[in-house]
Amino acid sequence: MKARILGAVVGISAMLGGALVAGPARASGSYTGRAYVAGDGTMYTDWYDEGVVSVAVHRSSNATCLWQAILWANGFLAKSEIDGIFGDRTDAATRAFQRSRGLSADGSAGRQSWTAAGGVSHTVTASGWANGVYSGREHGFNVRRSDAGNYQFNLGSGWLWASYNSRTCS
User: Fold this and answer.
1) Residue 12 has pLDDT above 60, yes or no
2) Is 57 within 8 Å of 108 (Cβ atoms)?
3) How far apart are CA 50 and CA 36, in angstroms?
4) What is the largest CA-CA distance in the chain?
5) Between the CA of residue 54 and those of 26, 71, 74, what are the distances in Å?
6) What is the CATH T-level fold of the domain 43-161, as seen in this structure?
7) Cα–Cα distance between 83 and 62 in angstroms, integer?
8) What crossing angle do the helices spanning 62-73 and 88-100 adopt, rounded to 10°?
9) Tens of pLDDT along 80-100?
């Protein structure tokens, strides 16, 4: 009997094509539960509560891509290594970054690592976007925040949403 009920539920779910799962996806492993790197108020202090990116959590995502861009901007990763996949090189670069900031070098970019990365200098607000620049020790890149508080970043080939749940950077 239980097998028949389970089969019916699976069948109905398949017919609906996942329609029972609605609304924006929440990001497990993020401190705020938001699906994007997000903030409000001053852009400089926005990244103090971001979710974890590591070899185990959000390994393949645009949030990981943003973290890799931060590592590149600070001289810990080559720009060619920014691909949105948290692999061995990103782990090693994260550990080096953490050591340079006096943090525990665990290779997991969590709240302390995002905070240590510093913030974004806000340049101008226009057309509903707060625009800014992330300036690392060696490089910088453009970022912007929507009215909803969600971040995008641009490494030279277009704007990407800093999502924990998808990867479009390569």
Assistant:
1) no
2) yes
3) 9
4) 64
5) 18, 13, 18
6) Muramoyl-pentapeptide Carboxypeptidase; domain 1 (1.10.101)
7) 9
8) 50
9) 999 999 999 999 999 999 999
